[in-house]
Amino acid sequence: MDNLLLLYQAPTILLQLVVDGLLVGAVFALAAYGMALVWGVMNIINVSQGEYVILGGYISYFLFRQFGLHPLLGLPIAGLALFLLGLLLYRVVIHRIVGRDMFISLLATFGISILLQQLMNELFGPDVVSVDAGMPTWYFLGNAVTVPTAKLLAFGVVLAIAALLVAGLRYSRLGQAIRATAQNARAARVLGVDTDRVYAATYALNAALCGMAGSLVVMIWVIHPFIGLTYTVRSFMIVIVAGLGNLPGVFATGLGLGALEQIAGFVLGAEFQSAFVFSLLVVILIVRNAWLRRRREYLS
């Protein structure tokens, strides 16, 4: 309660938390874009979403440590590497569960997440790592509010990727095929759309988005092999609130979640920040279920 009172007495602290949350929330939204795509097009809830984010972060970390490549320059490489990994996993595992019961997809992608966790642990070790972006910090309101350039750049990169994604889905042949398959896969096949190719591209695109999100995460935060679950839960929560196919809603929800997390971390303590995320997910599921029950209609 003392921290809550402090927020009231010093509004600049609240402003700082909200600014930090909005900048970090944009990165959450980038990972959630991919989950919304895979869920909407393939009807698969990808539990390994967070592990793709962390793997993208480790690729940028490796490039920085070995070759001195800045994470922003490593971002397209991480995206390409995860795109190829997504294609491989689709051909080996995912194509076998498309059209099957959603519970099977949960089990299959959960297995992938465990596999990736252990591989990252073996390759990079269990230590927490980060990359110093070497960028200055901006100060406002008499140094009461700070905005790191790295977070500001990450926010801009997410906006650029989101704009490219929307334009690609709207104007490219592949984007139109993805939208057609999401609306009705059978009708799309009748009209000549190769839905298997669309599914492969969608899953690989999801992995690439996560990989690029990971490059931003390692630049503004920390990563370790077993922290991916929180990104999966955040992505799931954002998609549940925003709805499938609502990319602007995904972005806005990501920003809101980031701000709420920062405020909760300050009020409750950093050790309860992850607990807040999981608790908020439970509350959202209960409220959404009650709302859907009220909207349910029966044929007489």
Structure description:
With 300 residues, this protein is mainly α. It has a single domain, classed as ABC transporter involved in vitamin B12 uptake, BtuC. The protein is 77% helix and 3% strand. It is built from twelve helices and two strands; from the N terminus they run H-H-H-H-H-E-E-H-H-H-H-H-H-H. It has helices spanning 2-9, 11-42, 49-67, 71-92, 102-124, 149-171, 173-183, 185-190, 195-220, 228-242, 247-268, 273-295, and strands at residues 137-140, 145-148. A two-stranded antiparallel sheet has the order 1-2. Strand 1 (137-140) and strand 2 (145-148) form a beta hairpin. It is globular, with a radius of gyration of 20 Å. The chain starts with a helix and ends in a 5-residue tail after the last helix.
Could you tell me the CATH topology label: ABC transporter involved in vitamin B12 uptake, BtuC
Number of strands: 2
Biggest sheet descriptor: 2 strands, antiparallel
Distance between the termini: 52 Å
Domains counted in the coordinates: how many?
1
Overall spatial form? globular
> Given the helix and strand composition, which structural class is it?
mainly alpha
The parts where pLDDT drops under 50 for at least 5 residues are none
Number of helices: 12
